[in-house]
Automatic annotation (TrEMBL):
Keywords: Nucleus, Receptor. GO terms for cellular component: nucleus. Its main location: nucleus. It comes from the Eukaryota. This is Nuclear receptor 2C2-associated protein. It is found in: Nucleus. Belongs to the NR2C2AP family.
Length: 141
């Protein structure tokens, strides 16, 4: 059974943080299991999150909870293997609401890094707000 592949050794990066206020809206708040905290991007056309894992993984599901009005209408999941380029694994289309949404990923290759591209924000200025982000899967052998 698939479980969360995000661990303390997983390194994350984000495209931006609103007003560079990482103490209040930084990337760590997507992973803290607290409903009161969130990552809030700054404005811009494309926002993204990258996750670099300590070893290769195979993704089976992505779970994300946006703030309604600050979600992404279309998203692209990309994977990266050492000495390669990012390749598209899947496209998914979240609803613009506050619910925790799950997106199954079919037949994903083993990757070392993931990049989640948030395209077409529901917000006029391109901001994205994520309360929770989790990636399910397994370590690749």
């Amino acid at each position: 059974m698939a479980s969360s592949i995000i661990c303390s050794e997983t390194q994350s990066r984000v495209s931006s943080v609103i007003n560079r206020d990482v103490k209040q809206y930084g990337k760590k708040y997507m992973f803290d299991s607290n409903e009161e905290t969130c990552w809030n991007s700054d404005q811009g056309e494309f926002q993204w999150v990258t996750l670099e894992f300590p070893q290769s993984v195979r993704v089976s599901e992505l779970k994300v909870q946006f703030q309604g009005g600050f979600s992404s209408k279309t998203c692209r999941l990309e994977g990266y293997v050492k000495d390669g380029d990012f390749t598209v694994i899947s496209h998914f289309y979240p609803e613009d609401n506050n619910a925790l949404q799950s997106f199954p990923i079919q037949e994903a290759p083993a990757v070392d890094k993931l990049k989640i591209m948030f395209e077409n924000s529901a917000d006029f200025f391109g901001r994205i707000i994520v309360y929770s982000l989790d990636v399910l899967g397994e370590k690749a052998s």
